[in-house]
Amino acid sequence: MTEAITSLNSGVKPTDNELIARFLQDQNPEHFSQLYRRYAGKVFAKCISMLGDEGLSRDAVQDIFIKVYLNLARFNEKSSFSTWLYSITYNFCIDLIRRKKKIPVLLADDVSRIGDAPVPDIPDSVLLEMKQERLERVLAEMPEGDRIILLMKYMDDMSIKDIAEFFHKTESAIKMQIMRAKHKAQAIYDSIYAHDPIET
Fold first, then answer.
1. What fold, for 107-193?
2. For residue 129, what is the DSSP state?
């Protein structure tokens, strides 16, 4: 920790872990403010992609960072700060969706119902080659659980292991769910844009 704190004085832009170390040592709110400025926009983007409401998403960002502030001492550096922060973000939004829409469960039960039914793989390029505005529309049409798992995998670049731990499921179940979600995304894309020859 001493090395992390010392490097803050070198004029080099501090890393997330360096800011956390300094904040935990002297409780100077400016260090946390730097983390907030660094990530608030990204957290807001994730919230609005899940919640679909700008006002609700802005409120969610404030609540999420309050939660992070109160729990920062529990961050153990086993994963990156961004992964930890986004996990909190997903948990918060999932809970909010459940309360607002009275959805009892999202992905967790969906995964448990998959069973051993084979699902053919579909290349990641199906998603990665969609134009951004089209991908956003496709994601907006998807069930919350499928949208969330695709955001985790392709927006946040979370590993299968991290996603599995988040949902308390096996890695094989998560892989299966991602394949199913990609198939749904392709089907939604085709239903919306199949007759539009202008762009792909």
1. Butyryl-CoA Dehydrogenase, subunit A; domain 3 (1.20.140)
2. T
